Amino acid sequence: MENPVVNCAAYCAGVRVAHVDIDNIGAVLQEPDKFVWIGLHEPEKELLAKMQKEFGLHDLAIEDAHRAHQRPKIEAYGDTLFIVLRTVQVHDKKIDLGETHFFVGKNFIITVRHGSSLAYTDVRTRCESTPHLLQRGPGFALYAVMDAIVDQYFPVIDALGEELEDLEEMIFDEKFRRETTAQIYHLKHQLLDVKRSVSPLIDICNRLMRFDLKVIEEETRPYFRDVYDHAIRINEMVDNSRDLLSTALEANLSLISISQNEVSKRFAGWAAIIGIPTMVAGIYGMNFKFMPELNWAWGYPIIMMITFGSSIGLYLHFKRSGWL
Questions:
Q1: Can you give the residue ranges of every domain in the chain?
Q2: How far, in Å, are 274, 277, 280, 296, 297 from residue 301 at the CA level?
Q3: Which fold has domain 1-132?
Q4: β pairing state of 94-105 and 5-12
Q5: How far apart are CA 68 and CA 82, in angstroms?
Q6: Tens digit of pLDDT for each residue in 309-323?
Q7: The CATH fold of domain 261-321
Q8: Strand partners, 90
Q9: What is the β-pairing status of strands 108-115 and 34-41?
């Protein structure tokens, strides 16, 4: 079974000083000017209970971190922040959603990943390469991971945008298929999932930029403006894509209706043309004995000429008007 503890390290002045065993965290927390960064991946309840005991985490936050499937949010439990973010990835044109939970305190940050999510090893490496920034503590580590999560939304939006362009080409290529409408609804559902994931980020970043959270140092708060700007941009991109998709759906339904009308006009035109010989045949098929033209030598040729002439004339009229 995969080890749920991805990483556990202690930092002093922005420099990684030691790899910490999960059972010896308490001793490290007693040392001044140090903070601990722990990365967990789908931990069991027993491991979360150990984290709760070591860091004094709230029962409700631990319960949420264990069950996952939470909405994006930020909650304060005393001097500890509990933050939930949704992560997104695209696999085979399908969006996979995951979650990352954060416990942030004065001298620690714990990340808990669930579901589809990239590891934050690269984020940790980048932070360690800039110790002058990482020395600001868990608040900067929180920003770095949040920034990485938000940046994952951009390729997802680009992939959905390419799928939308393909759908637009399918809509206007005059080959109307039922599958196109189904794909539009599927894409709308995916955009709605992204919208639900990214929209709460705006409020979360607003809260982190405010001055009532002592866990986030004042000099670190401006960094969350960058995450806020990205969240606003992604939210606008999602809204634009949803508007375009709604327009594409309306265009698809309109073109299908127009196509059906064209077919109906063709049927009506041919029905009118066929109706002329049908009417003539019906009249002379009544077998009346006293019909004057039955005794005319030119009666049959004249009736046939009138019948075919009327049909051809009606055909040419419908052809000019675009019905055929």
A1: 1-132, 261-321
A2: 19, 14, 13, 10, 9
A3: Beta Polymerase; domain 2 (3.30.460)
A4: unpaired
A5: 13
A6: 887 877 777 777 776
A7: Methane Monooxygenase Hydroxylase; Chain G, domain 1 (1.20.58)
A8: 95
A9: parallel
